[in-house]
């Protein structure tokens, strides 16, 4: 029987790289991202089902859950960075912080809630993509890091409450992605890891199915 994965933020970066890795291994994929053109191109490449939309939109979350009545893997990869240049907390716009919480914390929880029945049936797994900014005191990263810290604690409690489902909160390390380039500049981002290499390690994690917990791919 073919395994099914739902991957958010799958049109670029780590989400795209993981989608390619899983597709090559024969997984059935449902992918989502906000940009429909890029997402449709990826879907055509991989033979995946594309549902474009914002994971912070409750109606979109419901559509995604309906598309995966059987599900083996949920990858909450979609994430917002927040305002750039990255502001200090003393000047962080609170409306922007609330929006970031919706995307980086509330949306992953909503998707978990919507897909848990299917994941329980399959004994499936949840991957919540975090960051070392969840624990490190990096200037300018306070807003983003706070959302990832919240996501890690949600993952920690979810793992305790759902022993039949694997839950991994994953720190992938710095990757050469558009998000990192937006934060630190394209030149510095170019020296970071290739998302494809990180995705290969993440695929190994999914394949080996260790106990629930925090995982560093750095």
Automatic annotation (TrEMBL):
One of its GO terms (molecular function) is oxidoreductase activity. Keywords: Oxidoreductase. The keyword Chloroplast does not apply. Gene3D superfamilies: NAD(P)-binding Rossmann-like Domain (3.40.50.720). PROSITE patterns: ADH_SHORT. One of its GO terms (cellular component) is membrane. Belongs to the short-chain dehydrogenases/reductases (SDR) family. PANTHER family: DEHYDROGENASE/REDUCTASE SDR FAMILY MEMBER 7B, DEHYDROGENASE_REDUCTASE SDR FAMILY MEMBER 7B. This is NADP-dependent 3-hydroxy acid dehydrogenase YdfG.
